Amino acid sequence: MTLDKKSRVELVLKLAEKLESPDLRWDHANIILNTYGVRSLDDDSFGPSTAETVNTASDEQLIELAQHFGLETPNDAPVAAVTTTVKSAQPLFVFASHLSKHKGLVHEVATALSTYGINLFVAHDSITVDAQWHDEIEKALNLADAGLAFLHDGFRASPWCDQEVGWLLGRHVPVMALKFDADPYGPFGKHQAQVIRNETPTIIAEDVVQRIRTKPELAPGLGASLVAALAISPSFAKTDAIWAHLRELRTMDPNQCAQLLEATKDNNQVHWASAPLDGGLPYPRVIVDFLRAQPGGPIIAADIDAYSVYLDKKDTEAAKRTVAAPPPKV
Predict the structure, then answer these.
(1) Is 187 in contact with 165 (CB distance < 8 Å)?
(2) Neighbours of 184 (CB within 10 A)
(3) Residues 231/259, Cβ–Cβ less than 8 Å
(4) Cβ-based neighbours of 54, under 8 Å, separated by 6 or more
(5) How far apart are CA 155 and CA 164, in angstroms?
(6) Are 11 and 3 within 8 A, CB to CB?
(7) Helix axis angle, 201-213 relative to 103-114, nearest 10°?
(8) What does the DSSP 8-state code read for residue 20?
């Protein structure tokens, strides 16, 4: 059995407490560890701690030790998702073309887009000290999945902005225009620009993600971005914002499905939250159904099924506790 990360850490710490009990002699603790194939405790005060020694054990050894001490074994713990060998899409890398005097606004939009796992290349922020800025810009233009042009007065007259847009169009990647006080032009002008009036950087970023969702060629990268963002979501509100876009995708490959399953298990801002856009159901239940509908879902079907069984068992246990301890009568 393979333990998920959370179950493994919890089991290691519980076993360390048992082994450090004053009722258990040091030599007896080592006999127990050695019997199950785990190395002895270090008698050097500067050596590995008990917990560090226990952590060298395999998952199977940890479970056997837990059974020896009568601890509750995590047989019902969700197994770790299998990592597939299919080449997976990478999070989106978008090039920002803008006038330098508006770099503050562009930086704020980049920060807002990072909530969704999208990396907006802003030359003033992204180029490291002493790097050849000309080379770095060309490298970014060649790597970008898309472009985002901040059209302010003077944009067209800027040789850098004009050439950046032309470079991206020449690579046939999507270039999205944000119209502040200048219009798109030339081949760039055949697509409708997003008109910006008084929108905040957060709203601008949200609208950009909406536009990205309409572009099939960016869907795999968007999925990778959103899954990566969900894995580190710091709050229920951020989880809701990310999920609002992720739930619309039907392009998830096996690796992305496996990563999303792990994110659901490991991030308590996901697995403790409920999905307002899905009838208030717990995110784990909603995401299980979502994964089954993805192209990569069948590849990790065993992992999805195991997690679903785990959720069923947890729900049953919670129901039993509720029956055993009914609320007090008023």
Answers:
(1) no
(2) 21
(3) yes
(4) 12, 15, 16, 19, 33, 38, 62, 65
(5) 11
(6) yes
(7) 60
(8) T
DSSP letters along 306-320, please?
HHHHHHHHHHHHHHH
Name the DSSP class of 18: H
Half-sphere exposure of 200 (CA within 13 A, CB side): 4
Would you list the domain boundaries of the chain?
A: 5-76, 93-217, 222-321
Name the residue with tokens 């009838």.
Answer: 279
Distance, CA of 188 to CA of 165 (rounded, Å) = 8
Query: If the chain, 330 residues long, is cut into consecutive pieces of 10 residues, what is the mean pLDDT of each piece?
Result: 78 90 86 85 77 86 84 58 55 94 93 97 60 78 94 90 91 93 81 86 96 94 97 97 97 93 94 96 97 94 93 88 67
* Rounded Cα–Cα distance for residues 192 and 40 (Å): 69
Beta strands at 274-275 and 281-282: parallel, antiparallel or unpaired: antiparallel
Question: Strand, coil or helix: what is 65?
Answer: helix
- Name beta bridge partners: 147: 95, 175
- pTM equals 0.72
Q: Which residue type, as a one-letter code, is found at position 298?
A: P
CATH superfamily, domain at 93-217: Toll/interleukin-1 receptor homology (TIR) domain (3.40.50.10140)
Nearest Cα residue to 72 out of 62, 58, 82: 62
Residue 177: φ, ψ to 5°: -100, 135
